[in-house]
Amino acid sequence: MMQVALAQVAAVDWGKVFGTAIKVLLILVLAFVIMRLGDAAVERFFNNWNKLGPVDGRRAQTLRTLLKSGLRYTVYFIAMVTILNLFGVRVEAILAGAGVVGLAVGFGAQNLVRDVITGFFLLLEDQFAVGDYITAAGVSGTVEEMGLRVTRLRDFGGELHIIPNGQITQVTNHSRGNMRALVEVGVAYEEDLDRVTAVLQQVCEQAARDMADIIAEGPHVLGVVNFGQSDVVIRIIAYTKPMQQWYVERELRRRIKEAFDRENIEIPYPRRVVLSMSGGERRDQVSGW
C-alpha cells in the first residue's frame, strides 16, 4: 500500500502544481494591490471634492463606503473566476446558473433595487441632508437618517416616518436658502392707515435689530392686501434663516399686539348682543362690534 501511495505521489506533475500555486498567489497579490490603489483613488477623489465645496460628512462617508465596497466585490469576483479557470472549472456553466437565479431574484427584488438606486442618487445629488426639514412621499419632517434603502423623518409630533427611497419621487427642502415669514394683521376701518403703517414700521425696525442673527431681510410692511367684513388687512413679510420663520412670525405678532395696545389702535374682534327678559323687564348684554 505504501508503494501505491509513493507511485501516486511520483505521478503528480509537481512542476504544474507549483506553477499553478504561484499563479494563484500572484492573482491574490494583484487583487490586494488593486484594492489598495482603488481605496486610495476613492479617498483622493473625495478629498478633491471637499476642496471644491463643503460636503456633508455623512453623505460623503456613505458614498465613500459604497464605492469602496463596489470595487472590493468586483475585484473579488474577477479573482475568483480567474482562479477557478486555473483549476479547470467551467466558469461559464456557473455563470449561466447564477444568471438564471439572479434573474429570478431580480423579479422578486425590483422594489429593493429601485430603493437602493434611488437612495444612491439622492446622496449623489445632495437633494437633502441629515437635519434638513423636508416634505417627501406626502410626509413632512426633519431628516434623522439617510440610507441607501430608506430615509427616516421625524415630524413635529414626534412620530418617526420610515420611507423607502423608491417612493421619493419629489422632494421639497425647507432648509435650503432663506425662508419667508408672513404676518397679516387686521385693523378697524376707522383707524388712520398712515398712522397704523408708521407704528408697524417702527415695530419691524426694532424687530430687525433685535433678531438680526436670524432675520436675513426685512421685516417690510407691504401695505393693505384685503378688505374684510370688519377690518383692513395689512401684510408684513420677512426672510429668515431656515426653520426660524415660525418663531419670527410669533414674535412679530406679539410685538404688534403690544404696540397697538400702547397706541390705542383697535383690532376688531367678533361680539354678540344678548337680550334676556326677567320679570317683564328687558336686560341687554352687549358683546359685539
Automatic annotation (TrEMBL):
Mode of membrane association: Multi-pass membrane protein
Entry GO terms, CC: plasma membrane
Any one GO molecular-function label of the UniProt entry: mechanosensitive monoatomic ion channel activity
Keyword Hydrolase tagged: no
Keyword Cell inner membrane annotated: no
Keyword annotations: Cell membrane, Membrane, Transmembrane, Transmembrane helix
Annotated compartments: Cell membrane
Ranges for domain Mechanosensitive ion channel MscS: 111-176
Main location: membrane
Domain (Mechanosensitive ion channel MscS C-terminal) ranges: 183-267
Domain Mechanosensitive ion channel transmembrane helices 2/3 stretches: 71-110
Family that this chain belongs to: Belongs to the MscS (TC 1.A.23) family.
Protein name (record): Mechanosensitive ion channel family protein
Source species: Desulfofundulus salinus
